[in-house]
Amino acid sequence: MNIVLVGLGLIGGSVAKALKQNTSHRVLGMDVNEDVLLDACSSGAIDGKASLADVESADLVYLSVYPEDILAFVRQYGKRLKPGCILTDACGIKREICHAVEALSRDEKGAWCAPYQFVAGHPMAGKEQSGFAASDPSIFSGASYILVPGSASQEAVETVASLALQMGFGRVVQVSAEEHDRNIAYTSQVPHALACAYVLSPRCRQHQGFSAGSYRDVSRVANINDVLWSRLFLDNKQCLVDELDELLRNLQKIRDAVDREEEGELRRLLQAAAQIKREVG
Amino acid sequence: MNIVLVGLGLIGGSVAKALKQNTSHRVLGMDVNEDVLLDACSSGAIDGKASLADVESADLVYLSVYPEDILAFVRQYGKRLKPGCILTDACGIKREICHAVEALSRDEKGAWCAPYQFVAGHPMAGKEQSGFAASDPSIFSGASYILVPGSASQEAVETVASLALQMGFGRVVQVSAEEHDRNIAYTSQVPHALACAYVLSPRCRQHQGFSAGSYRDVSRVANINDVLWSRLFLDNKQCLVDELDELLRNLQKIRDAVDREEEGELRRLLQAAAQIKREVG
């Protein structure tokens, strides 16, 4: 396949390297930053810079850019893509993106009028650094790759799924955009909000010498990309607020049990948590 | 030195193994569980079971048992220890323990009347399993060892400090019991309360396939020993409640900024957090 990667940051760069390492597809790249494109070319992460003609003849276009730039790309290049081209993304929220891409791909009667098929995706991998320099295909190893098929053909979905497995992901999970966003609010967005809230305590500046694994783990992702994550939080507002409220309630229960010295209630809460963790891992 | 370890759980067992690996001290053990003592003897983690005579002739007694059992030991054996014996502990809270041991060690006029010197300690190491079977001296590698000298002599403090470094700890920090408890509420107790509150969400049961490092890190210590941690939480009540309130406030701010779609405020909060994390690590 001729693959065009749009955006060569942490995820796009890692995808590029994984594809070059593990497949024989032709991999071309686009990035707003020319230095990144140069680095990607000279390190062999991509076969070259994608021209407009390359975009138009691509078999698969992989978008790993900010949510609004996904839509900007679809508006600008969508109609010029080759018939049957598979368009996929790596955005961390799916309802907003899927609805917006659908809206750009259907005519006023609701019929699909775009040349491409859209298979929304979310590689469940990352790390606390960002940018091409941090990209590393080993972050994909054994991780989960989520696909939201929408109205794409089974064939297109399977093409993206097998590409994910070739990149080193351990499994592919297909879900609805709604289910994705609810789960991701819990598994990814809450921990990021939490890490930030945690380090905002004035005590944080005295942690050296008093911290071990627990501090390190909770605070790990606090060095956050505020532009990207504000967008992701707001684009998943209701799911995230619901999960944060759930966490605030449970944390308040533990706090109140301590404050009221209710040892029985406190033990019950900790026991229930330990039981869940043992069961679900 | 003749060292007696009281309690051969995760920490006591790891201390035993570290002392046998890295020093030539004679290491004897006591544990309420005879099977654990047998395992510790047969695996070479200790040189043998400590008799009452061994306790009475020990140069150093290391208590890694539950807070109330530390006091029970001091009540039962304190007066029988050899003059100059160093008594030290590994309990995760220090004000309660230090005050209680001091109270047991002074006469009605407030003069020290115990044969031992008490050097309170807290090895900042652990893992999510507990018990002798999980003990492993490598958890100490490079970690911080906190000492609360109280009224112990500088010589006694230095003996414990150098033992900690021989066990593989990376540094020894001396602080007051108050400073210890405030910092530990933040660096250790809040993350444990948080892990429990986090997995209590009904969404937790659906995390498989949607989780990566963030979920794993925040939930890691949720499989908690509820008896031990309820005790530690209650024994450090005010410090912990203060820090939980701080976290609840900051988390609420992030939640409200998302709920009100205040992108500027949300970015400001995330930016502030990222800045702190970059500065303090």
From TrEMBL, chains A, B:
Coiled coil location: 234-279
Keyword Oxidoreductase: yes
Domain of life: Bacteria
Biological pathway: Amino-acid biosynthesis
Keywords of the record: Coiled coil, Oxidoreductase
Bilayer-crossing regions: none
Entries under PROSITE patterns matching the protein: PDH_ADH
Keyword Ubl conjugation carried by entry: no
Listed GO MF terms: NAD+ binding; prephenate dehydrogenase (NAD+) activity; prephenate dehydrogenase (NADP+) activity
Pfam families attached to this UniProt entry: PDH_C, PDH_N
Domain Prephenate/arogenate dehydrogenase: 1-281
Any one of the GO BP annotations: tyrosine biosynthetic process
PANTHER family: PREPHENATE DEHYDROGENASE (PTHR21363), PREPHENATE DEHYDROGENASE [NADP(+)] (PTHR21363:SF0)
Protein family according to the UniProt entry: Belongs to the prephenate/arogenate dehydrogenase family.
Name the record gives this protein: Prephenate dehydrogenase
Lineage of producing organism: Bacteria, Bacillati, Bacillota, Clostridia, Eubacteriales
